[in-house]
Each structure stands twice: as C-alpha cells, then as structure tokens.
C-alpha cells in the first residue's frame, strides 16, 4: 500500500497533468478519473480522494460569491463584477446571493478568501470582545 506522502505526491502529479496553460482541462480530469476507476491500482481510493480534493480547490479558486442583505443595484453589481474580474482573472464565475440575516454590508468570498464587511459580522465581533473582556 502506498504511503500518504506518496499518495499526495502522485495526486499532485496527476493534478498538474490536468493543467493546460495554468487552467484546468476538464477532459483530462475526466480521463484521469476514468483511468483510475478502470485500472484500480493499489491505494486508488486514497489517490482519487487526494486528486478530487485538488480539483475542487482549483474550481473554488475561480468562483466568487457576493452576499448582501438586499438585492444590489445592477450598477453596483457591475462595478463589483469588474473589480473582481480585474483582481482575480477573467475566468472567475460570480454569483450574487441575498441573505437578510446579514443586516447590511457585503460578504465576498473568492475561493478560500473571505472579505466580510457585514453588520452581522461587526456585531459578532463586538459580542466576542465583550465576552472576552
């Protein structure tokens, strides 16, 4: 059985083989998964888990979610969209969501980065500071 270190190394190599000029090639990803499932090499399940985790992380890196308490004006959405595309690249998928519990402000998540300027987050930080002090 492969060691965890060897599995991660092989998973990363398979992932890198699916990149085409820095972008994920979906057909190569499908091919790798299909090959692993057909051949079922020793430790293939752990290898497949490692590989799919890397693919999911890469896909998330190109997704943005903007949350607000109320619908945003189309002009504001366009400005946010343009700014995010300029900062994170033109292949970014952007989604706007309404979450009334945020009470105001915006919460922007791009991949694993979160920028939280909501009233709810500020209230939570204040409550935590009162509890600690």
SSE topology sketch:
Blueprint: H1 4-17, E1 19-20, E2 23-24, H2 26-39, H3 44-61, E3 63-68, H4 74-88, E4 93-98, E5 106-110, E6 113-116, H5 119-132
Parallel strand pairs: 3-4
Antiparallel strand pairs: 1-2, 3-5, 5-6
Written description of the protein model:
The protein has 133 residues and is an alpha+beta fold. The protein has two domains: 4-60, no CATH class; 63-132, no CATH class. It contains five helices and six strands. The chain has helices at residues 4-17, 26-39, 44-61, 74-88, 119-132; strands at 19-20, 23-24, 63-68, 93-98, 106-110, 113-116. The strands form two sheets. It has a four-stranded mixed β-sheet. Strands 1-2 form a two-stranded antiparallel ribbon. Strand 1 and strand 2 (23-24) form a beta hairpin. Helix 1 (4-17) crosses helix 3 (44-61). The protein is elongated and about 55 Å long. It starts with a helix and ends with a helix. The mean pLDDT is 92.
């Amino acid at each position: 059985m492969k060691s965890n270190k060897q599995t991660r190394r092989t998973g990363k190599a398979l992932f890198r083989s699916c990149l085409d000029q820095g972008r994920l090639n979906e057909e190569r990803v499908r091919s790798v998964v299909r090959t692993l499932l057909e051949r079922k090499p020793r430790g293939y399940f752990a290898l497949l888990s490692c590989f799919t985790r890397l693919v999911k992380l890469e896909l998330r890196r190109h997704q943005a979610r903007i949350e607000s308490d109320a619908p945003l004006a189309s002009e504001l959405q366009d400005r946010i969209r343009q700014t995010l595309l300029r900062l994170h690249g033109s292949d970014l998928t952007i989604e706007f969501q309404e979450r009334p519990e945020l009470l105001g402000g915006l919460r922007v998540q791009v991949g694993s980065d979160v920028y939280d300027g909501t009233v709810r987050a500020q209230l939570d930080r204040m409550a935590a500071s009162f509890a600690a002090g």
